[in-house]
Queue: 3 jobs
Job 1
Amino acid sequence: MSANMIELRDVTHAYRTKAGPLPVLDGLSMEIPENSFCAVVGPSGCGKSTLTRLVSGLMRPNEGEVWLHGQRVTSPRPTVGMAFQNPVLLEWRTILQNVLLPMEIVKSPMSKAQATERAHHLLDLVGLTGFAEKRPSELSGGMRQRASLCRSIIHKPDVLILDEPFGALDAFTREDLWCTMHDLRAEEPFTCLLITHDLRESVFLADQVVVMSGRPAHAQYVMQVDLPGKRSLDDLYSPKAVEMLATLRHQIQVAQGRTVDETAEAKP
Amino acid sequence: MNDTLRKILAPLLFIIGILAFWEWIVWYKQLPDFRMASPSDLIPRYVRFWDLFLIKSWETLWRTVAGLGLAVIFGTLIGMVMGFSRFAREGLYPILVGFNAIPKATVVPIVALMFVGQHDFNTVLIAFMISFFPIAVSVSIGLSTLEPEYRDILRSLGASNFTIFWKIALPKTLPEFFGALKVAVTLAFIGTNLMEIVSPHGRGLGDLFDSGRISADYPLMFAVLFALAALGIVLFYVVVFLERIFAGWAERNPG
């Protein structure tokens, strides 16, 4: 068994389009140790969302292997939780029923009462105390995203995949939710793969930041985030963090520039 | 004003206003009842033929509801097939549109010949044919426009397609479905009466209308129109009531 929770080995993937195959990933390899937090950043359209679909088993790569917990991923697995930029809450259910949705699909040792208790606990933890019986339409965008986070971990997944869940929120709500993420992980550890456009977010949340190159993407740069102890938002303004942010910014620029260069070279 | 009170009083007020205006214009222009009957002319007709009105209304009503029921079942099935399979959608759409474009008044004599003598069946068939289209289209659109994320939250947990349909696609389509049902309910009504009037067979309010025409009882014809409108309103609000039960969540509180 591998020590890594998530492992990608030389993954290559292309989408079929009218204009022929569109290569998205090209030899992407990544290692995410158990209970660590990995953030993936990169220029837009570089295949970050494709990555989440491959890790969750919603898609299979053309070439290469995706491993989860020492097993090769070939189909979706109930030990994975997912949250998207769009919170996709079901409007006809209450918040509590929404959070409990995965429990209706996944076979879990938790009883119904235990699951409900856990749902209430998670809602408390993300600051949604008293909203269990409300409908999604009665909640603000940030509150919906909090509920969506609760739903993604209700069934105690060992891997959480987040595809820009904070992207559409205002800056203050976003920072609030970053802290919520830290609280959740302190409560119960899980391995996390976060796709984001926000470099500050990646540094604040992750143990490891992977910069993807332009399309077709590989892992261009991997940075270990070394901010020990409980992180606070102030840490983002420490010289160390500022330096890391500058490095990431530079790497993104390289990734963006590379898109142009490589397509020029690829067609001799 | 109280909310429920307003909901009852407002339509009542408007109905009375319109009837009063109608009564006034007939009186003012001194229109004979073969040109336009006034509301006060109708009351004697209802008093005289109340038993006929009840029987004929029932005949019209149950056949409309039966046709509508078939339309719901068949329309939902077609909508599901079209919603889930792009192949079926692209193949069926032009056929459905073409079918819907045929004026049903032209279909009535054909159906009447095809199933000669089976009046109830014919009428239900026309009611069905005229009303299933909006249901099929709305269900197919509701299903085919389901955002992929909705599917993914369940699929990433290993849920089957049926589970996804049952837990997400179906409930999510309900508001569209009821929107279409409101259109379909009036259409089915038109279908039933079309059959009753174009191919007279002695049943339904259409028959009463026809006897009014034959015996030159013009107020009776107007009285039938009112009875039809009343039935239509009742059916429509039954659908609204069902919608509130099954898709009430889609209604947003004002403010």
Job 2
Amino acid sequence: MTDIPFDAVPERLSSEPSYLEEHTITSWLFTKDHKRIGILFATSITFFFFIGGAAATLMRLELVTPYANFLSPDEYNRLFTLHGIVMVWFFLIPSIPTVMGNFLIPMMIGARDVAFPRLNILSWWVFTIGASFTVYSLIAGGVDTGWTFYTPFSTMFSNSHVFAAAAGVFITGFSTIATGVNFITTIHTGRTEGMTWFRLPLFVWAIYAVSVVMVLATPVLASALLMIMCERMLHLPIFNPDTGGDPLLFQHIFWFYSHPAVYIMVLPAMGVVSEIIACFARRTIFGYRFMVYAMIGIAAIGFFVWGHHMFVAGQSNYASLVFSFLSFIVAVPSAIKVFNWTASLYRGRITFEAPMLYALGFVGLFTIGGLTGLFVAMIPIDVHVTDTYFVIAHFHYIMVGGSVSAFFGGLHYWWPKATGRLYHEGAARLAAIMMFFGFNFTFFPQFIMGYAGMPRRYEIYPPVFQIWHVLSSAGASVLAVAYFMPLFYLGWSLFYGERSPPNPWRATGLEWKTPSPPPKENFLVPPRVEHGPYFYHAEQDPGDLTEIDTGR
Amino acid sequence: MSGASFITKESWSDPEQEFRASFGMWVFLSTELLFFGGLFLAYAELRSQNYEAFAEAGKHASFFYGTLNTFILMTSSFAIAIAVGAQERTDIKLVRFALVATLVFGFGFLIVKGLEYHEDIEEHLIPGAEFPSGMPAAQMFFALYWVMTGLHALHLTVGLGVVGRVWLIARRAELPENFHRTLEVSALYWHLIDVIWVMLYPIFYLVGRST
Amino acid sequence: MSGGHPDRRWIWKSPFPVWLALCVLLGATGTIAWLPLGIGNMLVSTAIGMIKAILIALFFMHLVRAKGTLWLAGLAGLLFLFTMFLLTFGDYTTRPNWWHPAPVPPGQSNLEFPEHALHP
């Protein structure tokens, strides 16, 4: 073992060229390297994040006054549908798994690559093809069904581009499935010597749990969308009430996917946050095993609660009771996780670098989102707030406050590893703080007006709600600035940032035991693991956390 | 990084390498199960709401072609099982023969399916104004019939490509070292197509025969 | 995964009885479908279909001799498929008009909520 000084430039020490060495276009588009595929996905989803964000910006602008200003009701419908479809399927679901999962999973388990590298690049291509269908539906004029494609409106009445949008989502589903199959197989068969199941970092467990959900839920969405496409294009009556068909059946099949899809968005975020909190509190994660069981529990029970989206849809009361009860059950493992993160902070040496700010923001916002989730799991309250801004605020707290915060946290945390450059810490902290405040200003007023009765999906509303809408739009402008900032300072660091040492955060985990950016095959020698993750605690002797393993 | 360089690297033990291909395929088969599962759920729910109409509609489906195709597909599954067994005992001639048999039965299935679709179209069994049965819900039976058998035929066509590729590899003078994995994994996919059909047969071809 | 008997005759001896059983079951289900058993027709044909699927999975797909992890991969799909059916039918079968459907006028769904359920 050679000790490498903290500020050493790793390239000089390693004979292996880094994975970023080749510069041709084809070396990127047809790469089989999981790290490059992660970067490809990062580029694609950043593009879609700003498309979805642009739609949200237009909506928030329109909602500043109670009257229609520059959008017709039909255009407004198309905008919120666009925002939903793009953000759910082209940003949130692929975000952490395909970017950070691809980049990190093989490194965290000490492997050279994922189990099926060719399937991995195929997944990105399928994503791109699916996405182009959706982009086509946008250019052609958009879709007005809402992201949920509810029948019979989507099959019999809507005259917008439902088919192209549904086809795009359908195709993208195969990309999700390919990624899920790849991760499950990689984690089962690719772990290096000594990396037992209970020595896996929690991020790996999170990606494992989410891959199971992806593999088992996504095909059901595919079948629902296939039936919609057949009914629309080939006029095969399935959900058509005229022939005895059942529009509510679509909701059952759709939510069997789409409720677990919420966990596809939030489970990886939980993994990211566990890594960051352990690192910046310099503590092992409290109750590691329970964190694992909680994630598996969330993934499994998450499949049994979909009926809480259908309390007012004409579902039987008895089924509603069961689904309500199961929705309370699924909150238990989520609560365990929040308590364990908090307990992990206890007596830690906490520092507030940008990733930690994002992670702490996640814990707070996820808690609010989760607790209001219990409100809407109660049938009487749900009947009151169904289709109001209360629901909008609830799921944005989970998805934007939770998942997007964690995505940005992870982006900053692993940025030096992926690019080999350091970013400007002050700018990053400012963006993190602005994101937290901007987010709360945007969405907390929506809880209040939602509870007071402001329905979702309308551009015209009673003037009494205007104060809340103005607050919300003002907050959204802060949020927009906070989302644009990383684009600039991270872009700047890419070219002018200081070179990063192998382990700038002095973190544990195999991904930090290799140069930044990592060599093509991840490690200079196959790593061996002798203990569990999160070896930060003083009594556990962290050793010199800055060394990289060169095998000498 | 090519697949071959993977195996020679010391950190990957060979048993894991053997295992990962079939494990990955089984995970994918679970996915396929739920893909068809959503359609089966739709069928079950709509039939339970429209029991008599589905029985009425079921009489129009072709019992002869359906049964014949079940037999053909089961036999093709049998053939590829022979191919896997022969490969394990290094009888490459029998492997080639069994793969050709699988392909022949597979194409046979598609031909019979084509004849059946032709007959259905002649009888106007397509939901719409010219649909013969008086009960409106009978159209839903045929809506699901077209979606599910069509999707199955699509899977079978993909399967023919997969098995055809294995056959092309098997014809080489020197087999690649991972040939047995390619064959086993492709056979798993082919068997799944058979499993799906075995479940499609009773719900589309045996409905309403006794009434 | 090489396994099974080294004798070459076993190439045929293992799958052939399975194929034979599949053919017998196909004959049985094809015949029973024409007997007037009411709801029994559906139950028998579905049960025989499942038996055939299990035979193919166990013997043709070699689940019999597979490691536990492969069973896990296969059974996970089956388990969640079962849950999907269970909870969806849990809804439909507990609706007030499931067991005593009102006569449906032609061209109308029988899934509408009856008046007494809306205004008790």
Job 3
Amino acid sequence: MPRRALRRLVLIIPTLLGVASLVFAFLHLVPGDPVEIMLGESAAPADVAALRHDLGLDRPLPAQYARFLARAARGDLGQSIAFRAPVAEVIADRYPATLELAGTAFLLALALAVPLGVVAAARAGSMLDRLTRLGSLAGVCLPSFWLGPLLILAFSIGLGWLPVSGRGGLAHLVLPAVTLALGMVGVLVRLVRASMLVALGEDYVRTARAKGAPGWRVVGGHALRNALMPVTTVAGLQAGALLAGAIITETIFAWPGLGRLIVEAISARDYPLVQGCVLAIGVSYVGVNLVTDLVYHAIDPRLRDAE
Amino acid sequence: MLLALAAVAAPLLTAADPYAPALGERLRPPGPGHPLGQDALGRDVLARVLHGARISLLVGGITVVLSLAAGLTLGAAAGFAGGWLDEVLMRSIDVLLAFPGLLLAIALAAVLGPSVRNVVLALSLLGWTGYARLVRAEVAALRRREFVHAAEALGARPGRIITCHLLPLVAPALLVQATFGMAGAIVAESSLSFLGLGAPPPLASWGAMVDEGRGFLLVAPHLTVFPGMALAATVLALQLLGDGLRDLLDVRERP
């Protein structure tokens, strides 16, 4: 394995340790006694003591930290108070729904943003370019928690084409995926367009044109390949951010994923579950960033040659 | 400017009390006396949208100021001193950036409890990283320039070199980033309020208003549409301002 990729893999260990430490710290940021908050003021002292013991809060802080890390490394994230089940099981049950939603939104965003950005750059200054830029700005500015209800109003209540909420077939996926994807489309269209404009002004593009290469080949074969390099990094970061964006989208569309679970856990003051969800999304985000870095390394010949 | 004026002059623009219920006039559509209609408790939507601007601008402004102050101080110190201070700062930032920003803000707001103060705290605890990285990179690059060596040779202390010689050069990029940061903070505050983790009721926050309106989409869509429009217009204005400032000040975009 190339040295740079290996170094990136090794660096993930301190990052994951930092992520776990931050998640551990959350429970200790709760103002007051987290156990009393979770169980309520009328809870029996025996129940309070049992939960305190179960969470390890009756031990010294360093011992709590070591126990948390050791258990997290084994995939043991404790017991959910609201679901009366292991946190890891509850999360595993909801994770596929979030992956389905975020994965669809990611593919949709790429499928829309790359062609739009390329066409806008190839026809810079045209009406199409202006419309694309306006649309991408709207994508960036429209908050998903507003866009979602508007889409429900138009396509579910108004036209009756799509279901309002829930998870089922493809029809259920359309509105949540579009809501989640649109912000990413806005960011990526701007980036693809800007990268393509730079690439189209390069000498090798001029040379290709001078040699008589057809326009579509110059744009798609020469310029696009180079323009997509920076887009890869940002697309990776955005893919990770989709996992967090899913919290809002899943709340709007009652999508039974990890995002909705975290909101339910917060409402129920189920802190072990909140910690577990944050850790799961954080680790996924780190994983997506790692894959992005490795993909970038694999496709950029300058990085490969540097080794 | 218009937005800030509308927020400050909210009581002059409408005589309606944003918190006074009128249960006999619930869910009324836009009409005379109530240009944007009334909500589920009969409160005037225009008054609440205008007062919502106050909360958004207040949270956005304070968050940017706190984040900027922390990011500027830490970034400048790390960039100038280098060594272990730089290493500790960059690794801390790496850990914070290992989470999607919204997720951390949600988690922090959840454990701290819903209040405007806690939203500002949560967003500021995360917001400083962007400014710190920017200032650290610029200061570390400028640190090796001759005018800095000349100032050191003349006996200038690091604090004076940073404030008098380096920060003026970093200021344009910071100003652009702060503009985008304010847009981000306003959206984040609204998102938290939408989830019930931001401004508590009955405070008029745009995010909370959209959430309240969701239950009445069929009968009173104006409850959702108008606060969202105000938020989108604010974010658009700040994005355009940031783009304009970047072009005007000729600030390079960093990947």
